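Protein modeling request. Please complete all fields; requests missing the sequence field cannot be processed.
Requester role: graduate student
Desired output: 3D structure, token encoding
Chains: 1
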Amino acid sequence: MNNKTITLLLIAVVGALLFIPNLGIVQLCDWDEINFAESAREMLITHNYLTVQINFLPFWEKPPLFIWMQVLAMKVFGINAFAARFPDAMVGIATLITIYLIGEKLFSHKFGLLWVLVYAGSILPQMYFHSGIIDPWFNLFIFLGIYFMVLYLSPDEKRNKSWFIFLSAASIGLGIMTKGPVA
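Delivered output (183 residues):
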């Protein structure tokens, strides 16, 4: 393995140690956490994976992507607070890896690591990645959409630019599937 692979594995392990333990120790308490977990539970019960529901009535406020992630976690871990929060712990790990890779590309290996350390040690990521809300996924998709658009528009970028516009559009599309038109 090369140094970059070791660094990425180390970041993933540290992210897992920061974000996965104690996910289910506290019951769901936020209105959003409760509603999203309930929507996932109802999808499992009804086998209707296309319509987000609350109290078995259509709930048109949010698109289904995040609920689907919770459904998958509930299929693996059971219907509980841990499963409802597990997707956000996973996006926490993905976010740390993403900001390292971007920091390394734009500046240096040291900058990428410093960015990861500062971000992981901040209070808001700790709260977000231990929750069962949509925002961590939404934030990552919007961040990536903007980042890939910047690469597309950059005169310094010489690689296949059409790939960057596709990645930007796909990221924003995933943001729309996560939180709706606000993306």
